[in-house]
Amino acid sequence: MTVATVLIAEDSLVVRTVLRRHLETQGYAIVEADDGHSALEACRETRPDVVLLDIEMPGLDGYQVLAQMKADPDLSEVPVVFLTGHTGADDLVEGLRLGAHDYLRKPFEASELIARVSAAARVKALQDELRRRNAELAVVSRTDALTGLFNRRHIEERLHEVAGAARRHDFVFGVVMLDIDHFKAVNDTVGHAGGDAVLREFAARTQNALREEDIAGRWGGEEFLLILPHTDLDGAATLGERVRAAVAASPFALDDGGALEVTVSCGCAVGDGFEPEELVKRADVALYEAKEGGRNRVVTG
Ligand SMILES: [Mg+2]
Description:
Blueprint: E1 5-9, H1 13-25, E2 29-33, H2 36-46, E3 50-54, H3 62-71, E4 80-84, H4 90-97, E5 102-105, H5 110-142, H6 152-169, E6 173-180, H7 183-209, E7 215-220, E8 223-229, H8 233-248, E9 252-253, E10 259-260, E11 264-271, H9 276-292, E12 298-300
The structure holds magnesium ion (MG).
Magnesium ion is lined by residues 11-12, 54, 56-57.
């Protein structure tokens, strides 16, 4: 478990020192700021888990600091416990209205300080965990589990994105449809586990042959689609050839120690005002020609 960091934004040295002492006994890491501007700066630099925020400070007051934190996507979810010396309800209401997590009246009891800060730190830890899991889920939901490439749904989304960007910014892009040759025979020869191993190795060789901005996904079964932004038909054919050669270069190793010759056929097309579906259809027609022409080859459509 990592230590939570608390930013103490408070212009009174005496109050800061008392806060620091109490919180350090609980194991929190402490960062201090003595005015509103340096509080915001410290927030951006240290990304605290909790901010203890005094209302009355020189420069920016606590309300202004809170408003700026809420307007900053990187800081908006950091829980803020504001410190007030006033006894009326108005400043509490204003602080909570601006999105503060909690408040603490000065003078405070150590036990109350610790209870409120630890509750805020717990909320922050749960938020962080939720964000981490959501990020993991997002990756899982766009990944083909077997090959690690993008899945059909995501590659279609990306195709529409790239096609839209190409129209708006007037650039060409290529697509390449790949189909592993005689894959049914592969499955018949080495079984489904062996077939899966071939698909994984094929995906790895394909990914290695691509450039940074190229996008590869599993279209279905033994079919794969490449999207190549800013690439004309010659460029698409060159890339298809690079993948074809990488696949044919050496036999695929199998788990049982054997090896299998694998080849792939490629059909290329470029987006030049075509709808994405039309483009895929053109690549498919070229792929069909590559199959008809004897397989293990690249055809441009
Ligand atoms: Mg003050």
